[in-house]
Write a structure and sequence with these properties.
The protein has about 150 residues and is mainly alpha-helical. About 85% of the residues lie in helices and about 0% in strands.
Protein backbone atom coordinates (compact mmCIF):
# COMPACT_ATOMS: atom_id res chain seq x y z
CA UNK A 1 0.00 0.00 0.00
CA UNK A 2 2.80 2.40 0.83
CA UNK A 3 4.20 2.01 -2.69
CA UNK A 4 0.83 2.75 -4.26
CA UNK A 5 0.50 5.90 -2.14
CA UNK A 6 3.99 6.96 -3.21
CA UNK A 7 3.05 6.54 -6.87
CA UNK A 8 -0.15 8.51 -6.30
CA UNK A 9 1.92 11.33 -4.78
CA UNK A 10 4.35 11.25 -7.71
CA UNK A 11 1.43 11.30 -10.16
CA UNK A 12 -0.05 14.29 -8.34
CA UNK A 13 3.31 16.10 -8.39
CA UNK A 14 3.74 15.39 -12.09
CA UNK A 15 0.16 16.47 -12.81
CA UNK A 16 0.70 19.64 -10.78
CA UNK A 17 3.87 20.41 -12.71
CA UNK A 18 2.14 19.73 -16.02
CA UNK A 19 -0.77 22.00 -15.04
CA UNK A 20 1.70 24.72 -14.02
CA UNK A 21 3.44 24.44 -17.40
CA UNK A 22 0.14 24.55 -19.31
CA UNK A 23 -1.04 27.62 -17.36
CA UNK A 24 2.23 29.45 -17.98
CA UNK A 25 2.25 28.56 -21.66
CA UNK A 26 -1.40 29.57 -22.18
CA UNK A 27 -1.03 32.83 -20.26
CA UNK A 28 2.18 33.74 -22.07
CA UNK A 29 0.62 32.97 -25.45
CA UNK A 30 -2.38 35.20 -24.72
CA UNK A 31 -0.18 37.91 -23.25
CA UNK A 32 1.95 38.07 -26.43
CA UNK A 33 -0.94 37.68 -28.90
CA UNK A 34 -1.41 41.16 -30.36
CA UNK A 35 -4.77 40.20 -31.85
CA UNK A 36 -6.23 39.86 -28.34
CA UNK A 37 -7.86 42.75 -26.48
CA UNK A 38 -5.77 44.62 -23.92
CA UNK A 39 -7.90 43.48 -20.95
CA UNK A 40 -7.33 39.83 -21.97
CA UNK A 41 -3.61 40.39 -22.38
CA UNK A 42 -3.35 42.20 -19.05
CA UNK A 43 -5.35 39.46 -17.32
CA UNK A 44 -3.05 36.82 -18.85
CA UNK A 45 0.04 38.70 -17.65
CA UNK A 46 -1.42 38.84 -14.14
CA UNK A 47 -2.23 35.12 -14.26
CA UNK A 48 1.30 34.34 -15.41
CA UNK A 49 2.76 36.34 -12.50
CA UNK A 50 0.40 34.61 -10.08
CA UNK A 51 1.33 31.14 -11.35
CA UNK A 52 5.03 31.96 -10.98
CA UNK A 53 4.71 32.74 -7.29
CA UNK A 54 6.31 30.18 -5.04
CA UNK A 55 4.47 28.71 -2.09
CA UNK A 56 6.40 30.97 0.30
CA UNK A 57 5.51 34.02 -1.77
CA UNK A 58 1.87 32.92 -1.84
CA UNK A 59 1.94 32.55 1.95
CA UNK A 60 3.44 36.04 2.31
CA UNK A 61 0.86 37.47 -0.08
CA UNK A 62 -1.95 35.77 1.85
CA UNK A 63 -0.59 37.16 5.14
CA UNK A 64 -0.31 40.66 3.62
CA UNK A 65 -3.90 40.49 2.39
CA UNK A 66 -5.06 39.25 5.80
CA UNK A 67 -3.27 42.12 7.53
CA UNK A 68 -4.74 44.63 5.06
CA UNK A 69 -8.23 43.27 5.72
CA UNK A 70 -7.71 43.41 9.49
CA UNK A 71 -6.32 46.97 9.50
CA UNK A 72 -9.26 48.12 7.37
CA UNK A 73 -11.69 46.61 9.89
CA UNK A 74 -9.80 48.16 12.82
CA UNK A 75 -9.70 51.57 11.17
CA UNK A 76 -13.38 51.42 10.23
CA UNK A 77 -14.29 50.80 13.87
CA UNK A 78 -12.63 54.12 14.78
CA UNK A 79 -13.50 56.03 11.63
CA UNK A 80 -16.60 57.87 12.88
CA UNK A 81 -15.13 59.22 16.15
CA UNK A 82 -11.90 60.09 14.33
CA UNK A 83 -13.85 61.88 11.60
CA UNK A 84 -15.78 63.86 14.21
CA UNK A 85 -12.57 64.92 16.00
CA UNK A 86 -10.89 65.88 12.72
CA UNK A 87 -13.98 67.86 11.74
CA UNK A 88 -13.62 69.84 14.98
CA UNK A 89 -9.92 70.39 14.26
CA UNK A 90 -10.76 71.51 10.72
CA UNK A 91 -13.13 74.13 12.15
CA UNK A 92 -10.41 75.44 14.46
CA UNK A 93 -7.87 75.48 11.61
CA UNK A 94 -10.31 77.37 9.39
CA UNK A 95 -10.78 79.95 12.15
CA UNK A 96 -6.99 80.33 12.54
CA UNK A 97 -6.59 80.81 8.78
CA UNK A 98 -9.49 83.29 8.69
CA UNK A 99 -8.02 85.39 11.49
CA UNK A 100 -4.56 85.29 9.91
CA UNK A 101 -6.07 86.50 6.65
CA UNK A 102 -7.90 89.30 8.48
CA UNK A 103 -4.49 90.58 9.65
CA UNK A 104 -3.21 90.37 6.06
CA UNK A 105 -0.69 87.66 6.90
CA UNK A 106 0.25 85.87 3.67
CA UNK A 107 -0.69 82.18 3.42
CA UNK A 108 2.96 81.44 2.62
CA UNK A 109 3.75 82.59 6.17
CA UNK A 110 0.87 81.26 8.27
CA UNK A 111 0.34 77.85 6.64
CA UNK A 112 3.87 76.48 7.23
CA UNK A 113 3.81 77.93 10.75
CA UNK A 114 0.50 76.26 11.59
CA UNK A 115 1.63 72.93 10.08
CA UNK A 116 4.82 73.08 12.16
CA UNK A 117 2.89 73.86 15.34
CA UNK A 118 0.29 71.12 14.79
CA UNK A 119 3.04 68.59 14.02
CA UNK A 120 4.81 69.62 17.20
CA UNK A 121 1.57 69.19 19.18
CA UNK A 122 1.07 65.69 17.76
CA UNK A 123 4.63 64.79 18.77
CA UNK A 124 4.06 66.17 22.29
CA UNK A 125 0.82 64.19 22.65
CA UNK A 126 2.60 60.99 21.54
CA UNK A 127 5.49 61.62 23.96
CA UNK A 128 3.05 62.28 26.80
CA UNK A 129 1.10 59.10 26.02
CA UNK A 130 4.29 57.03 25.87
CA UNK A 131 5.58 58.44 29.15
CA UNK A 132 2.28 57.60 30.87
CA UNK A 133 1.47 54.23 29.28
CA UNK A 134 4.64 53.22 27.49
CA UNK A 135 5.12 52.93 23.75
CA UNK A 136 2.44 51.15 21.75
CA UNK A 137 5.11 48.83 20.37
CA UNK A 138 8.68 48.44 21.53
CA UNK A 139 11.16 49.29 18.82
CA UNK A 140 12.22 45.64 18.47
CA UNK A 141 8.58 44.61 17.98
CA UNK A 142 8.08 47.43 15.49
CA UNK A 143 11.13 46.37 13.46
CA UNK A 144 9.88 42.81 13.40
CA UNK A 145 6.50 43.88 12.09
CA UNK A 146 8.11 46.15 9.53
CA UNK A 147 10.12 43.24 8.22
CA UNK A 148 6.95 41.16 7.99
CA UNK A 149 5.11 43.96 6.19
CA UNK A 150 7.94 44.29 3.71
CA UNK A 151 7.21 40.78 2.47
Amino acid sequence: MANIDDYDMIDKDIEGSMQYGRECFEAEAIMNDESKDWPDRIRAAAELEHVKLTKAEKRKEYQRRTWNKEIKEIFQSFELPLFEKLDEVDGIMAQIFKEASMFNIPASIYRPYVVEQVTDMIDQIAEQRESQRGPILKRSQYRGRGEQNAM
